[in-house]
Automatic annotation (TrEMBL):
Listed name of the protein: Tyr recombinase domain-containing protein
Domain Tyr recombinase: 214-498
GO molecular function, one term: DNA binding
A Gene Ontology biological process term: DNA recombination
Alphabetized Gene3D superfamilies for the sequence: Intergrase catalytic core
Keyword terms, alphabetized: DNA recombination
Organism name: Photobacterium lipolyticum
């Protein structure tokens, strides 16, 4: 929509907002839109996040383009104004022009708008949430314009009195996600709603979105090895895949990981990767010869601003910040962060004055293999430029070790000759995934998130861990997010009924032959490991052999003590 004939957005740096970009909107007459830019200024003063700001700007500009396409630049009648938002949501949901998914006579007006919008109707993931996001953004602007400019409301909300049954249903929904449910007033009798025409469209979209839902679609378990070892042709892409399927990270979360967040291995040979909030997570660095600690936002401001002082002012890496705060138009540096819920059980102190959280691996072999690949990636791309042969390191005064000499701290970088060394972007991640799926010929609807669903499937169905444990491992805030992985698969039903039948027949002795021990655990190639993990297994085998040689009375005493 940047090339829309109805508006143009120019992103400019504004020193009033600490270097943040201001989206200056020009309207169809070629002049800046006074009201919308005033509203954007207000949003930035209220410290709206970059992603939320973009949503509001996009919603309002798309609404303006829709209005111009349908009615031209003339003033709207009262009836046209009353139906404007509802008609806009129809255009978004069903698409326009040749892309319109509706052929009924009452939707003919959508076929000649010249907007060429793809329908959200076929996007199960986006349909309901995106439409509601548009409606919320328009309503917030509508209220602001009514207060500050006395304009009539486009989409007035209605105060609705809730019945006892509606209050009960509201509490029933809240109990799955609201940890402060006990603080909600039980006698709350009203709720703010959209006008009926808008509400009908949002409810219909939510209903379609929910059809056939429930079970999260994970990446096919039988093709995981093929995905990593064959489809992924470079070591960086293998690391990304393994982090998401073995460590349950969301798509953009690896982009926030620093090079030195990889802190070596644990006793099983698994990589120890520190996870932290990209803005408020704590970190330590050297400053004026002393070790200091602070938030990651402070780290960028105090350390990297000095480190990159010789870089030109206009270069995207001159003023670094958490990627949640950087603009998408700043070389695509923006990366979202939904948030992680850390459990007290995984917090500990190791000489630092704050809690550290590490990524959990669903299978130690994946964590061990990841570390082997990391060492290769570090040497090939982070410490050396593979295209010039130059060594690219500097000594870390904190650890005394040599680390990447790139002008930023992030682990994942572009490795092509043109963009070598630049931080990897979400756009590049999307391109990587399209390439991987094309090589495998897998379902086009599977996204990066299907790898995270594999982690949930593995913990729930293979390891059969309690739901509370999986909630911690996946950093879910609400049990309802974890509960979706606990469904009956054909394999688990078959195993349960076979076990019950053999027990009923008094033939439990046959169970090990029908359902071999450990048969659920997938077979991974021998190279999915490292020497430390193999040594760990050897130590376990030695302990087992030693235990078997103990006298029976000693074994019994040890078992009694462990109980």
């Amino acid at each position: 929509m940047q090339g829309s004939p109805w508006y143009q957005i120019v992103w400019i740096y504004d020193s009033n907002f600490e270097g943040r970009e201001f989206p200056l909107v020009y309207l169809a007459n070629g002049r800046p839109g006074y009201v919308i830019n005033q509203y954007i200024y207000d949003l930035m003063k209220r410290e709206f996040s970059h992603s939320k700001l973009e949503l509001h700007v996009r919603a309002l500009c798309h609404l303006y383009a829709f209005t111009c396409a349908k009615y031209g630049l003339r003033p709207l009648t009262d009836e046209e104004s009353a139906w404007l938002v509802a008609d806009f949501l129809d255009a978004k949901q069903f698409g326009t022009d040749a892309q319109c998914s509706r052929r009924a006579k009452r939707f003919e007006w959508l076929h000649n708008l010249g907007l060429h919008w793809e329908p959200l109707l076929f996007s199960k993931r986006k349909q309901g949430s995106t439409l509601r996001g548009y409606a919320d953004a328009i309503t917030e602007f509508d209220k602001w314009q009514h207060v500050h400019h006395g304009a009539n409301r486009l989409s007035p909300t209605e105060t609705h009195f809730m019945s006892a049954w509606e209050r009960f249903q509201d509490f029933k929904k809240r109990k799955d996600w609201d940890m402060l449910l006990h603080l909600v007033k039980s006698h709350k009798g009203t709720v703010e709603q959209y006008q009926s025409a808008v509400r009908e469209r949002l409810d219909a979209a939510e209903k379609r979105r929910g059809k056939g839902g429930g079970v999260k679609k994970s990446f096919p378990p039988s093709r995981i090895v093929e995905l990593v070892d064959e489809a992924a042709t470079n070591v960086r892409d293998k690391l990304l895949i393994l982090m998401m399927l073995g460590g349950s990270l969301r798509r953009a979360e690896p982009l926030h990981v620093f090079h030195f967040d990889v802190e070596g291995m644990d006793g099983m040979g698994q990589a120890m990767i520190r996870l932290a909030d990209p803005e408020h997570g704590m970190i330590e660095w050297m400053e004026d010869g002393k070790q200091v600690s602070g938030t990651r936002s402070e780290y960028f401001k105090r350390y990297w601003e000095k480190q990159n002082s010789d870089i030109p002012e206009t270069h995207p890496l001159r003023y670094l910040a958490p990627r949640t705060e950087m603009g998408r138009r700043n070389q695509g540096m923006h990366a979202g962060f939904k948030g992680m819920t850390y459990s007290g059980g995984e917090q500990f102190l190791d000489g630092r004055d704050y809690d550290i959280h590490y990524m959990w691996w669903c299978d130690p072999r994946i964590g061990a293999y990841w570390y082997e690949l990391f060492l290769e990636y570090e040497e090939t791309y982070l410490k050396n430029n593979p295209y010039t042969g130059e060594r690219n390191v500097r000594k870390n005064p904190l650890t005394g070790e040599f680390e990447s000499g790139l002008p930023h701290p992030w682990l994942f970088i572009k490795i092509d000759p043109e963009g070598y060394g630049e931080p990897l972007t979400v756009t590049a991640l999307k391109a990587i995934w399209r390439r991987l799926k094309r090589k495998l010929g897998v379902d086009h609807r599977l996204g990066w998130h299907s790898l995270r669903h594999y982690f949930g499937y593995y913990c729930a169905s293979i390891l059969q861990l309690p739901m509370e444990t999986v909630q911690v491992l996946m950093h879910h805030a609400q049990p309802s997010s974890t509960n979706v992985y606990y469904h009956l698969s054909n394999g688990s039903v078959r195993e349960s009924i076979t076990t019950a039948q053999l027990k009923a027949a008094g033939r439990e002795d046959l169970l090990p032959y029908v359902i071999p021990k450990g048969s659920r655990v997938p077979k991974l190639p021998d190279h999915w490991s490292n020497d430390y993990y193999k040594l760990y297994l050897q130590q376990i085998e030695l302990k087992k052999a030693f235990h078997e040689e103990l006298p029976a009375v000693v074994k019994q005493a040890l078992e009694d003590k462990s109980e």
